Amino acid sequence: MAKDRFLAQGVTHTKRQRGAHGQKDQKNQKNQRSQKSRMRSHGSDGSESDGVGDISDLEHQYEDASDAVSSADEFLETPAEKRLRLAKDYIGRVQASTQMTGGIDAEQIDRDLIAERLTLDANERSGRWSRQIARNFAYTIDEPQITRVLRFGHALPPTCVALTPDARFVYSGGKDGALVKWDRVEGTKLHVFRGLKKKRPDHNVGHCDEILAVAVSSDGRFVASGGRDRRIHVWSVPEDRHLGVFHQHKDAVTGLAFRRNTNHLYSCSLDRMVKLWNIDELGYMDTLFGHQDGAVAIDALQREQAVTVGCRDKTVRLWKIADDAQLVFRAGAATDQHRITKALGFAPEIQSELNPRVVSSLNVHETTLRTLAGADAEFSEDCVDCVTMIDEETFVSGGDSGALCLWSVQKKKPVFIHHLSHGVVSTGSNDAPPRACWISAVAAVPFTDLFFSASSDGCIRMWQMRAGKTPGFDLVNVIAVNGFVNALSVRELVPEDPMSNTRDVVVAAAVGQEPRLGRWEKVSARNVVKVFTLRAVLPTAGQ
Description:
4-stranded antiparallel β-sheet; 32 strands
């Protein structure tokens, strides 16, 4: 009963606890009285004491309070105010990048340039191609006038090539294990990162085997290279020095791509893995699994995603890295009599105003298709070898069947197939059917209607995406090249005149005697890097 009366009175502490709390209260009261007395003594005679800070301490205290208020104002900023502030900052940066000096109406010109730049950036953020530039290159190309040959850089066939964002420098890698830096304008060799032997103590600062892939960051500061030695080396573009090496891949590194406006690097390998790297910190980020065979090519644009092709698993995969997901597209397009006949039925009419080289190429292609349709020939795609992104939702792949496949994220099968894009070659036997020219490289000008393809048929072909709801592409022009084109790299040049409506395009090609991933065939050609500067010419009213 006493226990119940004790609880009913609301007593919740024991006697010992009540004594401890009383002692704490007495100490707090004594501290408060002593602090008040020190403050009175400081205010009466102006002398400083140990317990109270001086005037500078008070100033710092008020400064901290003002900083807290300003940070609080930032947190109190509404979403609309934040968007307005960021938009003003962005327009200021664009205005600074497009500033013009001189001119009659500089203010109006600046407004036009800013509006054009904002429209261009908005279209790129939408993720779909919008600029139509392919018609600016539909003229007869004179190769000696536009070609610069970069010689004496590789003892063996070059396998990869990459242009810096401003197209000032060209990097090429070859089967000799050397990475060469070229000056595109002067045509000179600036630096050579030579291949090393595995037994050397400094073998970690260079490749010990064939280089198969090279890529340059969008800010032009870093270049990455990978090869059969299963390593990825990172180099500094301005300083021409080695920065680091990654050893995580278990087989040959066959593809590299930088994400635009970042220094995130994507790599693919014959070990069937796709890896992500942070070049700013020289660190590993993540590994993606899914391919059933070695991944041999990779490409990426602005979004946090990449597209890869598996060699003999005959798939094209779009990796959505932020969502930790992947979209699988089934390749392996067959070119048989039915599809050849269907392609002939939907082939566009050859227009007489096209340049003679394109007309000749189209006539040869049509004749080849008709001959094969009558002979009941069939070409199956057993290997997908290259891929490039037109925009964030559209990409093109090529393989050993000679077919160029256009893909969209909306469908699992190609939305358009151009069969035998680079023709066929004879096998030298009357009994054996002809063999399709292997599509060895593709490259595109991002967010435009222009892309390139190459093979061993002695030419690089330029294609124009069809505008409208009907997907597809058509041949625009042909560039003559002798040898295996193992890689392509394309960049747009910034025009000297800010009011210019056209931009020249630079195409770099790694040309050699042998294919990139093997030695099953050899042609008579020079192991060089060829750079083509295509001048943009606005078509006339009749075109």
